[in-house]
Specification:
348 residues; alpha/beta; Metallo-beta-lactamase, Chain A; 7-stranded mixed sheet; 5-stranded mixed sheet; 10 helices; globular; binds zinc ion; hydrolase; hydrolase activity; Metallo-B-lactamas
Length: 348
C-alpha cells in the first residue's frame, strides 16, 4: 500500500523550510527553525514560542558542533535581543534532546519534559554497557537476527551517548491532560506512546496550532519499534491508540507543526493513512505466517522487500517485532516452541 495515498489531500502552507540560522514565522510569535542531521533523515524541526520577553524553545537538535554553530547563528540572528526562557523537549531521541543539557547549562534554562522521556534519557546514559550485553544481546539472537545486524543494533545504545549532552538533574514534568501557558498562549498537553514512551505534543486550541513532534509526520511513517529493554512491549498498540485519541481531540484543520518534514493541514487524513498503513502491515505478517512459520527476522523481507543495509535492517527488525507483539497480544499470531533456538510465529 502506498503510504503517500492521502498526501495530495494534505496542504503545506510553507513550501520553503527555513535556511540554516534562519526562521519562518508560522503564526504570530511562533517561529520555525530547522537543524541539519547527519543521517538519511537529514533535518529536524525546532520551534520557538514567544514567552514574555523571550522565547521558549521546543526541541533542540543533535549534539554536534554543527548544531551548536546553528544555535549560535539563530541566537545572533533572528532570536537576538530576546533570551531563551525555557526548553521543552518532546522525547528522548537524540535528534530532539541532543543539546538539551548544553542549552540548559549555558542559558540557565528549565527543562520541561514528560516523566518517562526524562527518565529514559537518564537510563540510557547511566547504563551504556548493559545495552550491548546479557538479555539485550540474547533478545536479538532468539529472534534469529544475523550476528552483523545484532552488533549494529547493540551499538546504537553507545551511539546515542555520543549524540546527547548530559541531561540536567532536575526537570519540570509535562503530564497528559494538563495545560501549559507560554506567553499569551495556553497549550493543552498531550502525550502518546509508540514512537517513544511518552512523547509530548502541544495543542493551542484557540489558534488551532498543533505541535505534534514525531507522532504524526506528513511523509514518513514514524518508527514504531520494540526494543530489548521491554521485549514484550506493545508500542504499536500504544501508537494506534494515540492516533485515535488525536483524531478525537485535535481539530481536523489544525496547522500541524511536526518534528520532521513540512508543516501541514489535513491531520485526520494523515492519521487515517497511518492507521491503514499499520493495519496493512499486520495483515501481511499474518498472511506470511499462515503460509509457513516465520521468525521475526524472517518476516523483515515480508514487510520491507527492498535491500536493507545492516543499519536499516536493525530498525526494520525492531519495527517488525512491534507488529508481531501487537498481533500476538491480540491472538492473531502465536509463538511456536523454539526448535533450533530461534523463536518462530504461526497464524492463529
Ligand atoms: Zn523520534
Amino acid at each position: 500500500m502506498d503510504l503517500q495515498q492521502h498526501e495530495p489531500l494534505l496542504t503545506f502552507p510553507f513550501l520553503q523550510p527555513p535556511a540554516p540560522g534562519q526562521t519562518v514565522e508560522v503564526a504570530p510569535g511562533l517561529l520555525w527553525a530547522r537543524f541539519a542531521l547527519p543521517f538519511s533523515l537529514n533535518h529536524v524541526n525546532v520551534y520557538f514560542i514567544a514567552d514574555g520577553d523571550g522565547w521558549a524553545a521546543f526541541d533542540c537538535g543533535i549534539a554536534t558542533d554543527s548544531t551548536r554553530e546553528q544555535w549560535q547563528a539563530l541566537l545572533d540572528g533572528p532570536l537576538a535581543g530576546r533570551p531563551l526562557t525555557r526548553l521543552i523537549i518532546s522525547h528522548h531521541h537524540p535528534d530532539h534532546i541532543g543539546l538539551a543539557g548544553w542549552l540548559c547549562e549555558r542559558y540557565n534554562l528549565k527543562l520541561l519534559m514528560s516523566q518517562a522521556e526524562y527518565l529514559e534519557g537518564h537510563y540510557i546514559a547511566l547504563n551504556p554497557d548493559q545495552m550491548a550485553e546479557g538479555p539485550f544481546r540474547q533478545f536479538y539472537v532468539d529472534h534469529g537476527l544475523s550476528a552483523e545486524a545484532t552488533e549494529i543494533v547493540l551499538r546504537q545504545g553507545h551511539g546515542y551517548l555520543r549524540m546527547v549532552t548530559p541531561l540536567p538533574h532536575t526537570f519540570r514534568r509535562l503530564a497528559h491532560g494538563e495545560r501549559l501557558r507560554i506567553g499569551d498562549r495556553e497549550f493543552e498537553i498531550y502525550t502518546g506512546g509508540g514512537h517513544s514512551s511518552e512523547q509530548v505534543m502541544l495543542y493551542c486550541r484557540a489558534e488551532n496550532l498543533f505541535i505534534g513532534a514525531d507522532q504524526v509526520l506528513a511523509k514518513i511513517s514514524p518508527n514504531v519499534s520494540v526494543w530489548a529493554m521491554e521485549p514484550e512491549g506493545d508500542p504499536l498498540g500504544l501508537y494506534r491508540r494515540s492516533l485515535r485519541e488525536l483524531q478525537g481531540q485535535i481539530d481536523a484543520d489544525a496547522l500541524v507543526l511536526p518534528g520532521h518534514n513540512l508543516p501541514f493541514r489535513g491531520l485526520h487524513l494523515r492519521l487515517q493513512a497511518l492507521e491503514e498503513h499499520h493495519a496493512h502491515r499486520c495483515a501481511q505478517l499474518v498472511e506470511a505466517c499462515r503460509v509457513a512459520p516465520h521468525s521475526a527476522s524472517e518476516l523483515v523481507p515480508v514487510m520491507f522487500p527492498r535491500e536493507l543495509d545492516p543499519h536499516q535492517l536493525s530498525f526494520a527488525f525492531s519495527e517488525v517485532l512491534a507488529h508481531v507483539n501487537y498481533l500476538v497480544d491480540r491472538d492473531q499470531l502465536r509463538w511456536m516452541p523454539a526448535a533450533d533456538g530461534v523463536r518462530r510465529l504461526a497464524a492463529v
